[in-house]
Write a structure and sequence with these properties.
Chain lengths: 194, 132
């Protein structure tokens, strides 16, 4: 069978396939394992290709792909995991990590304590802290922190109101800071005052 | 702008969500208040750290090439107006048995949208948008 490369193939490869790393990264954080992430990435590009004609040329292709991925994740994986957790996030302060950090002796000992604290956290600690966030919060945190989407773009991708993006991001931030603090304690980077 | 107002806007500031005037107001406050500046710097470095520690995770080459390959095969099948259920089965029922139920859902979904898409795109465009 001769290889037939269509105009659509060329366009799709140029516009959409440049974002495979970003889509894979997001899929990993959402599904929390490589096997499911790989499936989700394949499904995302498969669907994107099928519906390529509906993609408005010149608009934000990365956001469009993330919208497809998010939708697939919500409809399939979300149901599967039944991960509707109730988190008592209200007892977490804003600026949690900073406040905890201020209460330790660690800060006085070093010249550039913040940088030291963050440098000592492993990549895996940060990834795990993100993955431990409840799904709704995790989604907006990754889209904002890791992918750098604006609040409006996140609202469009996830299909929620702008106000909901802000509140989820705020709560997600607080929980992420709490999680990172726990990893810093676990690693012995900081000692919790008793 | 006092500390309370500045801290309320801090995250929006760090996320580049403030307009030029608000941005300037926050920056003016941060310049004059060591306490808020410390907090802002901490949050800025935190955000940067999370981004840096999560950004390097490239897609496996094998997965990338299998996406390319499958897309090309799908295209051929749709060009010749053949329904490639075998192709899609291979695609959706690939490696992981625990996910098979979900795959089946996608499978039907694709078939459905595929036919309608080709039959009359404009009539179904609204429905089709909501699917995406």
């Amino acid at each position: 069978m001769p290889d037939k490369v269509t105009k659509k193939d060329i366009e799709f490869e140029r516009e959409a396939l440049q974002y495979t790393d970003a889509v894979y990264r997001m899929a990993l954080r959402m599904t929390k394992n490589k096997a499911d992430a790989e499936d989700l990435v394949q499904e995302t590009f498969f669907k994107a290709y099928r519906f390529w004609d509906s993609f408005e040329k010149g608009s934000n292709c990365r956001a469009w792909l993330f919208k497809i991925l998010t939708n697939l994740f919500i409809t399939a994986y979300h149901k599967k995991s039944k991960e509707k957790q109730q988190f008592a996030y209200d007892d977490v302060d804003s600026h949690y990590l900073y406040n905890q950090f201020e209460n330790t002796d660690y800060k006085q000992q070093l010249e550039d304590p913040e940088q030291m604290l963050f440098n000592q956290l492993l990549d895996d600690d940060v990834k795990k802290a993100i993955e431990e966030l409840p799904e709704d919060f995790r989604m907006v945190v990754v889209l904002s922190f890791v992918e750098g989407f604006s609040y409006q773009e996140i609202a469009d991708i996830v299909g929620i109101q702008l106000g909901t993006v802000k509140s989820r991001l705020h709560r997600g931030r607080k929980l992420l800071q709490k999680g990172l603090w726990q990893y810093a304690v676990k690693r012995g980077i900081v000692k919790e005052k008793t | 702008m006092d500390c309370k107002q500045a801290l309320l806007k801090l995250y929006n500031y760090l996320d580049n969500e403030l307009d030029a005037i608000e941005c300037k107001e926050v920056e003016e406050h941060l310049k004059s208040c060591k306490h808020c500046f410390g907090k802002a710097e901490f949050e800025r470095i935190l955000k940067k750290t999370v981004q840096e520690k999560c950004c390097y995770e490239p897609i496996p080459e094998q997965l990338k090439s299998s996406i390319l390959e499958r897309i090309k095969r799908i295209d051929k099948c749709s060009d010749s107006n053949q329904d490639s259920s075998e192709e899609q089965n291979r695609f959706f029922f690939s490696a992981k048995p625990e996910l098979r139920l979900d795959r089946r859902c996608f499978h039907f979904d694709y078939h459905w949208s595929f036919f309608h898409f080709h039959e009359d795109f404009s009539r179904h465009s609204r429905l089709y948008d909501s699917q995406i």
